[in-house]
Design goal:
- The chain has 448 residues and is of the alpha/beta class.
- 46% of the residues lie in helices and 13% in strands.
- It contains 20 helices and 14 strands.
- The strands form 3 sheets. A 6-stranded parallel sheet has the order 3-2-1-4-5-6, with helices on both faces.
- The radius of gyration is 23 Å and the shape is globular.
- Bound molecules: nicotinamide-adenine-dinucleotide (NAD).
Length: 448
C-alpha cells in the first residue's frame, strides 16, 4: 500500500520504517527541515537500537522516503497516518490536540482521492471523531475514512515491539477502514498477532487505560519499596513473590525513582482530565500521579541522606539521565527533577549517560558531562545511579570506589548487589532493600 506518515518522531519514524519493511511504499513527512535533512543523509535523529540499519535497508529498496512536502506525500496515498505529538496542554493537563488538528487540516487540503486517515497519536476520547469532522468539512467531495490505531511500542525496543506486538488495536466504523488496516498489518496477522477491532472511543481509551495501569503497577511497587525499607524486607523478594503469580506477572514491578518518559506522565494526566470532564473521576490514577511526583522529589532526600543530609559543596556523579535505558529521550525523566534539586542545594554534579548528553545538556544547566563513568566519579563523594544502562551494570565497583573521594553509592534501580558494593568499600543505598541481604536478588536474577 502507499502510505504517508505525518510526523517522523519516535513513533512516526519507527512506524514508517517498519511499514516499509512490511513491503509498503512509505513516505515519512515532518515539518522539521533539519530532521528530514538528517534522515535523507541516512542519519536517525533519535537513538533507537536497530533503527538506522532497518531504515537504510528500506531506503535502498526504494520503499522509504523522507520529505517536508506533506501535500505531495499525501496525494495518492491509500493510508495517511497522523503520528504527531500530543503533549500536555500548558497549565492544565488535557492533551494538546493542536498538532493533530493542524495535520488533519493539511491532509484534507492535500487529498486527491478516497483515503483512510489513521490516527496513531495518543488522543483523548472523541478526538478521532473531531479529526473526521475536520476532514469531511474540508473535503465533502471525497470518501474519507478515519481509524484509530494507538501505538504501544516502547522506546528502546521500538522495532521489536512494532514487528512483534502483543496486539494491534484498531478503532474503526466501516468495513473499508477495517480492511485497510488489515492490509497494512497483514505480515503481523500471518504471525497470528491479534488485531482487536473496536469502536473509535474504545480504541482511544485502551491506550490511556493500558498506560495508566502500567504507571499504577510501577507506583505500587515503589510504595511497597518504601514500606520494605521501614520494616526490614527486601522489595526484590516481594516483587519476585508477587510476580510469580501469573495473575500479576513480573513486569513493571521494578522499583525506582518514579516513572517518567514521553507517555506515562502526560497520558495519566490526560486520562484524569477526561474522567473529571464527564464526572467519572479516576481517583486511583489521580493518586498515582501525585505519589509519583512526590517520589521524584523524595529521591533527592535519599541522596542527601546518604551524604549525611548535607549536599552543599558535595561532589555527586549521576549515572543515567534519560528516562530509561536505550533511548535518548529526556521527556519527564526523573533526572530533570533530581539533578536541578541537587545543584540547587549546592552540590557539584557530574553527569554520565551514553545517549543523554545531546538532549540533556540544554535541560540540565550547571552540570558537567563526562562520557566515561570512572572519569565522572573522579573525586566524587557519591555516585547516584538514576537510569540502568547496561554500561553501568558491569562497572568494576572497586575501581569506581578508588576513583572517588567518598564512599556513598546510591543505586536507585537496584542494579548492583549490596554485598558486592560493600566488598568494594561502598556504603550502599538501594531502593526497598530493607534487609540488604541480596540473597533474593541473586535468585531473582537467575529466574529472569
Ligand atoms: N514516544 C513513545 O514512546 C510513544 C509510544 C506510543 C505512543 N506515542 C504517542 O505518539 C505520538 C507521537 O509521539 P512521539 O514521541 O513520536 O512525538 P515526537 O515529538 O517525537 O514526534 C512528533 C513529530 O511530529 C512532527 N510534526 C508535528 N506536527 C506536524 C505536521 N503538521 N506535519 C508534519 N510533522 C509534524 C514534529 O516535528 C515531530 O518531529 C504522541 O501522541 C505520543 O503520545 C508515543
Amino acid at each position: 500500500m502507499r502510505v504517508a506518515m505525518i510526523g517522523a518522531g519516535y513513533v512516526g519514524l519507527v512506524s514508517g520504517v517498519c511499514f516499509s519493511d512490511f513491503g509498503h511504499d512509505v513516505v515519512c513527512v515532518d515539518r522539521d527541515q533539519a530532521r528530514i535533512d538528517a534522515l535523507n543523509r541516512g542519519e536517525t535523529p533519535i537513538f533507537e537500537p536497530g533503527l538506522t540499519a532497518l531504515m537504510a535497508k528500506n531506503v535502498a529498496a526504494g520503499r522509504l522516503r523522507f520529505t517536508t512536502g506533506l501535500a505531495a506525500a499525501v496525494a495518492g496515498a491509500e493510508a495517511v497516518f497522523i503520528a504527531v505529538g500530543t503533549p500536555t496542554r500548558r497549565g492544565e493537563g488535557h492533551a494538546d490536540l493542536s498538532y493533530v488538528h493542524a495535520a488533519a487540516a493539511e491532509i484534507a487540503a492535500a487529498l486527491t482521492g478516497p483515503t483512510v486517515v489513521v490516527v496513531k497519536s495518543t488522543v483523548p476520547v472523541g478526538a478521532n471523531r473531531d479529526v473526521a469532522r475536520i476532514l469531511r468539512a474540508a473535503r465533502p467531495d471525497l470518501a474519507i475514512e478515519v481509524a484509530s490505531n494507538p501505538e504501544f511500542l516502547r522506546e528502546g525496543a521500538a522495532i521489536e515491539d512494532f514487528m512483534r506486538p502483543d496486539r494491534v488495536v484498531v478503532g474503526a466504523e466501516t468495513e473499508t477502514a477495517r480492511a485497510a488496516l488489515r492490509a497494512l498489518y497483514r505480515p503481523l496477522s500471518l504471525r497470528e498477532t491479534p488485531i482487536l477491532f473496536t469502536s473509535l472511543e474504545s480504541a482511544e481509551l485502551i491506550k490511556y487505560a493500558a498506560n495508566a495501569f502500567l504507571a499504577t503497577k510501577i507506583t505500587f511497587i515503589n510504595e511497597m519499596a518504601d514500606l520494605c525499607e521501614k520494616v526490614g524486607a527486601d522489595v526484590q523478594a516481594v516483587a519476585q513473590g508477587m510476580g510469580l503469580d501469573r495473575r500479576i506477572g513480573p513486569k513493571f514491578l521494578h522499583p525506582g525513582p518514579g516513572y517518567g518518559g514521553s507517555c506515562f506522565p502526560k497520558d495519566t494526566l490526560a486520562l484524569t482530565r477526561i474522567g473529571q470532564q464527564v464526572n467519572a473521576p479516576l481517583r486511583l490514577v489521580e493518586t498515582v500521579i501525585a505519589v509519583n511526583e512526590a517520589r521524584k522529589r523524595a529521591m533527592v532526600d535519599k541522596i542527601a541522606a546518604a551524604l549525611g543530609d548535607h549536599l552543599s559543596g558535595r561532589r555527586i556523579a549521576v549515572f543515567g539521565v534519560t528516562f530509561k535505558p536505550d533511548t535518548d529521550d529526556m521527556r519527564e525523566a526523573p533526572a530533570l527533577t533530581i539533578v536541578p534539586a541537587l545543584i540547587g542545594a549546592g552540590a557539584h554534579v557530574t553527569l554520565c549517560d551514553p545517549e543523554g548528553a545531546r538532549e540533556g545538556a540544554g535541560l540540565l544547566p550547571g552540570a558537567v558531562w563526562e562520557a566515561d563513568p570512572y572519569a565522572a566519579a573522579a573525586g566524587a563523594d557519591a555516585v547516584a545511579l538514576l537510569t540502568e544502562w547496561n554500561m553501568f551494570r558491569g562497572l568494576d565497583l572497586a575501581r569506581l570506589r578508588r576513583a572517588m573521594a567518598g564512599d556513598a553509592l546510591i543505586d536507585l534501580r537496584n542494579v548492583w548487589r549490596p554485598e558486592d558494593a560493600a566488598a568494594a568499600g561502598f556504603v550502599y543505598t538501594g531502593v526497598g532493600r530493607g534487609d540488604a541481604s541480596g540473597a533474593a536478588t541473586q535468585d531473582m536474577t537467575r529466574a529472569q
